[in-house]
Amino acid sequence: MKWTRRLFRKAEERAITSLPWDAGGPMPSQVSAHGAQSLIPLFACWRILADSVASLPVQTFMRNATTRAPNPFLPDLLFQPSARDNWFQWIHKCMMSLVSRGNAYGLIVERDKFGFPVTIEWLHPDDVFVDEERPTMPLFYYQGQSVPTEDMFHIPWVVMPGCVKGLSPIQAFAKTIGVGIAATDYGRSWFENGGTPPATMKNSAKTVNPDESTEIRDRLSAAMRSRKPLVFGNDWDFNALKVNPEESQFIETLQINATQMATIYGVPPGMVAGTQGGGSVTYSNAESEAINLVTLTFRPWLVRLESAISPQLAGRQMMRFNVDAMIRTDTKTRYEVYGLALDQGWMNVDDIRALENLAPLPDGAGQVYKSLAPPPPPPVPVPPGEQQLSAEGRAFLELLVSERDAHA
Fold this sequence. Notes:
Layout: H1 2-17, H2 33-37, H3 40-54, E1 58-63, E2 68-70, H4 76-79, H5 87-101, E3 103-111, E4 117-123, E5 128-131, E6 139-142, E7 145-147, E8 152-156, H6 169-172, H7 174-191, E9 199-203, H8 210-225, E10 236-240, H9 245-249, H10 251-265, H11 286-309, E11 317-321, H12 331-344, H13 349-355, H14 391-407
Antiparallel strand pairs: 1-2, 1-11, 3-4, 3-8, 5-6, 6-7, 9-10
């Protein structure tokens, strides 16, 4: 009975904790999730990572002791992982949860006859609470209701030792994100006459009291916003204040903040309107830039997803993202690489045609691999007269030749 009361008490605590506390507006020292996603550099990092990872094709392999063989069949989890989402949408939602909250929570709603998941529905990470009191046996709650651990598919981002949940970038870098939001809001208010007044009006004929000043200011502001002609009397002096566009938009502050956002996610700052530290980085060609982007930016995210999804596949199956689809070389270089692959025997014609989105050759003609073993040496030509000799006769003939050479 005590255990039951304790369970329901925890469920109530989790329900309260899972409420969106920022619904009434963020506290001065906090940044709301909705406000954070309105920051363009931050959202650009989310979009680049989610779009790039979700658009990569996947391949499955059969794991053996020392080798792995391609699997021609795509498991149901990788074909239609959700009731409404295809693979692209499913992975895209997973990545958005990871980059924005540091955690992706999926509810396993359907399994095959062997118990492996075939349908996983992603849950909003703000509605999930994780009891980390015992990290080896965490308890999951969705909207205050307990969820069996075996039915929760959890992928964290950066996890500290002794923890289960991944680090939330919005919470961890709230101050940095807040600087960007404040700079954006201040730049907007500048144009809305909330920063520096756009002009001054001076009456040289009489002194204007506060009430008259307020009325004149409102009428002037209304005329300026409506772009209507402004009529002056002979006793007014109007001076418009000029503001440097770079100062009005805080270009330098916004660029520094964009660079910081890109650094958090490992995205090149130039892709999110940031500045590259230490000068601009140049690449020999687009292929080198793509390789650098895959290696430094996308590879950790891909390995994280592969390591989490592969154990959910039946048997010895494993899934891998094909990053070659992102690294596209020019036609001449690509064909030269195909030629080397054919000559060395680690690809056949049908493999290459599949990469070029072509159908295989008929009757299995493209399934032939060239042997990796070196070709046998050509046979030594034998004179016609020696082809009739037996082994004993050949030995006797060689003895006579050697004796003749010795006497000579």
